[in-house]
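User: what does the whole thing look like in 3D?
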Amino acid sequence: MTLSRRQAITLIGGGTIFAASAAAAGFLTTRTPTLALAPWENAGGYDDPRKRALSFALLVPNPHNLQPWIVDLEGTDGLALYQDQSRKIPHTDPFDRQITIGLGCFLEQLVIAASADGYAVDLTLFPDGPDGAIARAVFSPGAKADPLASAIMDRRSCKEAYAETLVSERAAKELAPYADVITDSDMVQLLRDLTWEAFLIEMYTPHTLKESVDLMRFGKAEINANPDGISLGGPFLESLMLAGILNRKDQTDPESIGFQKGLEIFNTLMMATPAYAVLTSDGNTRVDQITTGRRWLRLNLATTQMGLSLHPVSQCLQEYPEMADQYAQVHDLLAAPGQTVQMLGRLGYGPKTAPSPRWPLETRLRNA
Ligand SMILES: Cc1cc2nc3c(=O)[nH]c(=O)nc-3n(C[C@H](O)[C@H](O)[C@H](O)COP(=O)(O)O)c2cc1C
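Assistant: Here's the predicted 3D structure for the full assembly of 368 residues, as structure tokens:
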């Protein structure tokens, strides 16, 4: 749950808690978690072309920003990608479906970044079977740059209210090679209601709520120490924390004002959605999930180039018993019999948002 500056203003009633205190105002201007954002600055700054591509790959979208990747460099031109088994969200993603999609995003951005650097990447998925490496990659010189590469640094998951501006038929057509785009107003309303209902289930189911709250990082010090999970940072959120409105305890208490205000904010932003993007697959194997991640990343880069915002809203796609009805409904609405809805995202025109924290490349390389 990332609250924006504007959302935070709403939360504190349009006032500024620290207006009276110059010292506090000074403190709040220093709240950017610079260390946690360093990987965005360092992207591309490596001599080894594999590390250059990896330094961009780790900027991809991934569930709860867990960054479940570990990489071994192999020989002079290869690498192997592994899933970090300690970075999982078992309550909301019991089969690692979403985690695997995030690893697919990683591989696609690796290939795109390498192409912009003049390298082709030969990928072999699951070279040692389902329990070994996710992929092996061999780099060789001589690739043509993928035009989507120019969007890597600006891509975001934009978790904000979107403008009322509709997504035009022309824009939907331009995105058709990447995803199913839903602009029909009745269907959009159905999906707003369904995604909101699913969001509430996650929030009011104690074990799924706890999973999220455990991953929340409150303020700059926590974010810098753990640049992953759900980061609650920036001057306004930190002012709320100092004022006692935003804290870990209240986030686990549905009766608290902080929890209820959070719901209000999320209801507003989830309703402010003019369109949706959907990815389905015929099968639901690990390879299908990796392919979905690769498709989602390309979609997110394409939307970025078009000035459109994208935000995954995955609650109704999650496979735990309390979500079974919403899971069935979203499949009735969006998939043919037997297909799996792998990704559902809000699509529209949102504000430019800050990048999210990342672990440095060096911490994800086992044998650098
Ligand atoms: C498979 C998958 C599922 C996701 N589901 C959600 C979601 O339900 N809600 C949400 O706010 N973000 C979701 N995200 C987005 C991540 O939270 C986001 O990618 C991560 O925090 C990093 O931020 P960034 O994409 O802006 O770099 C999802 C991303 C992926 C790849």
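In plain terms: The beta strands are 69-74, 78-83, 119-125, 135-141, 180-182, 216-218, 230-232, 275-281, 309-312, 340-348. The chain has 14 helices and ten strands.
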